[in-house]
Design goal:
153 residues; mainly beta; six-stranded antiparallel beta sheet; globular
Length: 153
């Protein structure tokens, strides 16, 4: 986890995710992406790109380690390779979140559209998070990023 040490209400978090491949060029098997409204405790919202399965989703983290996918936010990236880098942007305004995923040359691969978070954290820190994917738990945890920025949209 890495973050911008400033609290934001309305925020756009942008990051270049998965910038390095694991040994032998296999690509990553973790979930990576920007997060927002972290209360420095157990609450945040995350645009997770799953490099094991080629999927994405908006995830709400809550106390006690509970993760919930926000309804209507999950999809599949196509084309996709575990070695690809992506420009991932998460925008959170009030109780609405939106995630966009693009190639390095700007081709939009996915857009969740506006998704309502029924239990939002309204303000907090934003940054980049990598976690082990449950179905690929034997792969090394690897997350790599560049160009992390948070700003008011």
């Amino acid at each position: 986890m890495a973050w911008v040490d400033q609290s934001f209400d309305a925020v756009r978090v942008s990051v270049l995710a998965n910038t390095a491949s694991i040994p032998a060029g296999q690509g990553a098997g973790s979930r990576q992406g920007p997060f927002a409204h972290w209360d420095r405790g157990s609450n945040w919202i995350w645009c997770s790109v799953n490099y094991a399965s080629g999927t994405y989703e908006l995830v709400r983290a809550k106390p006690m380690g509970i993760y919930e996918t926000l309804p209507g936010s999950k999809g599949t990236l196509s084309p996709f390779a575990q070695t690809d880098s992506h420009r991932v942007t998460l925008e959170v305004i009030d109780n609405t979140a939106r995630c966009r995923i693009a190639t390095l040359d700007g081709v939009l691969l996915a857009d969740t559209g506006p998704i309502i978070d029924s239990n939002p954290t309204i303000s907090g820190v934003s940054g980049f998070l990598t976690e082990v994917e449950r179905t690929a738990y034997l792969l090394p945890l690897q997350g790599s990023f560049a160009d992390l920025s948070s700003y008011v949209p």
